[in-house]
Amino acid sequence: MSGGKFITVEGTEGVGKSTNIAFIQKLIESRGVELVISREPGGTPLAEELREILLNKRDELFDPTAELLTVFAARAQHLNSVILPALAQGKWVLCDRFTDATFAYQGAGRGLSLDVIAGLESIVQQGRQPDMTIFLDIDVRTGLERASARAELDRFESEKIEFFERVRAGYKSRVNSRPEKFLVVDAGKPLEEVQSSILTKFEPLLDRWLAR
Ligand code: Z5A
Q1: In this predicted structure, what is the pLDDT of residue 174?
Q2: Which uninterrupted H or E stretch holds 130?
Q3: Labelling 62: which of 14, 153, 189, 191 has CA 20 to 30 A away?
Q4: What phi and psi values does residue 133 have, to the nearest 5 degrees?
Q5: Ligand 1, closest atom to CA 105?
Q6: Residue 96 Cα, ligand 1 centroid: separation in angstroms?
Q7: What pLDDT score does 153 carry?
């Protein structure tokens, strides 16, 4: 993508994305970079409405293909009206989840075809990919304990543990197939250690990007 850098943060439930995005934001902004923080699904008023639809618990079964298309509808809106314009202006974008989440949740979690997801990815993104993805990894049980201690569970968080085990395996398979695209951090450790690990892995990349 032209201009700024596009960084995404991924992981399963309760992994600490929000907490660590605030930390990464400080790190990047302390270098004088203009940064846009966003999230998926969401990031624009319309995409946030689609997020509500995706996350709200309902009696009617949300058909997995309908869920997948809703995720990509929100992504098209967000990408074209927030992410790409910001990058074109030279701003950096730090986004809480992106398409790796679709491969993990709708692909590995729901069992939808990875080829179909890749096809939608190419229609919506037209080859545009994050410059780097920070994958926060945690044992599924520990993450769910953290998430349930925090607030009422949404539609995704109410899934069975087996679903999240598949999601985590889906993320790991993405990481293993493109190791150069990911920074992997063990997020099961105390917060200070997690953030020190983010610093150690992310700062050299930041230095390289800013030196160019
Ligand atoms: N979804 C999808 O299916 N397909 C897609 O393509 C996309 C998304 C893009 C909403 O995402 C849902 O959308 C998501 C998948 C689906 N499933 N769910 N649920 P979300 O990212 O908004 O939802 P979330 O996973 O619940 O993220 P979150 O709210 O940002 O929570 P978090 O990552 O766990 O972050 P946190 O609030 O910072 O941390 C959780 C708690 O743990 C909190 O109390 C912290 O203080 C605590 N914490 C954090 N780090 C630590 C450490 N190191 N030790 C101890 N305690 C800690």
Answers
A1: 98
A2: none
A3: 14
A4: -125, 125
A5: 3
A6: 9
A7: 84
Determine the distance separating the centroid of ligand 1 and the alpha carbon of 157, expressed in angstroms: 9
Task: Choose which residue among 9, 15, 37 to substitute to test ligand 1 binding: the one with the highest number of ligand atoms within 8 A of its C-beta.
Answer: 15
Which pLDDT score is estimated for 1?
A: 47
pLDDT band at 157 (very low <50, low <70, confident <90, very high): confident
- Other beta carbons within 10 angstroms of residue 167's beta carbon come to 25
Residue with the smallest CA separation from ligand 1 atom 3 is: 105
Q: Where are the domains of the chain?
A: 6-211
CA 185/CA 155 separation, integer angstroms: 26
- 117: confidence class by pLDDT, cuts 50, 70, 90: very high
Do residues 50 and 74 make contact, with C-beta atoms less than 8 angstroms apart? yes
Q: How far apart are CA 8 and CA 175, in angstroms?
A: 13
| Type of residue found at 67 | E
Report the nearest-CA residue for atom 17 of ligand 1. 156
- 6-211 folds as Rossmann fold (3.40.50)
CA-CA distance, 134 to 184, in Å (whole number)?
6
Task: List pocket residues of ligand 1, CB cut-off 6 Å.
Answer: 13-19, 40-41, 55, 71, 96-97, 101-102, 105-106, 146-147, 150, 154, 156-157, 190-191, 194
Q: What is the 11 CA–ligand 1 centroid distance (Å)? A: 7
At 200 the pLDDT is 97
